Amino acid sequence: MTIQVHLDRLLAERGMTLTELSERVGVTVVNLSILKNGRARAIRFSTLTALCEVLDCQPGDLLSYRPG
């Protein structure tokens, strides 16, 4: 996949667990794990917005494009 997800790095930088993020964002741990592992095929803007609010980041901090 050419879209890279940097959820691991952001969680580590903020000292937050996936479970804590799940509770704060309102998305299941399973769905966050799918996103974190690069297996998600799509993400809703509402989910992206909630992730950015909780992680205090911009969408570009969470996702990046890597030419294939």
Using the alpha-carbon principal axes, give the shape.
Answer: globular
**Low-confidence spans:** none
Secondary-structure element order, as H and E? EHHHHHE
Helix content range of the residues, please? Answer: 55-70%
Count of individual beta strands: 2
Q: How do the strands of the widest beta sheet line up side by side?
A: 1-2
Radius of gyration, whole Å: 11 Å
Instruction: Specify the structural class.
Output: mainly alpha
The CATH level-2 architecture is identified as Orthogonal Bundle
Descriptive report:
This protein has about 70 residues and is mainly alpha-helical. The chain has one domain (about 5-65): Orthogonal Bundle (434 Repressor (Amino-terminal Domain)). Helices cover about 55% and strands about 10% of the residues. The chain is built from five helices and two strands, in the order E-H-H-H-H-H-E. The longest helix is centred in the C-terminal third of the chain and has 11 residues, at about 45-55. The N and C termini lie close together (about 10 Å).
Features:
68 residues; mainly alpha; 434 Repressor (Amino-terminal Domain); two-stranded antiparallel sheet; 2 strands; 9% strand; globular
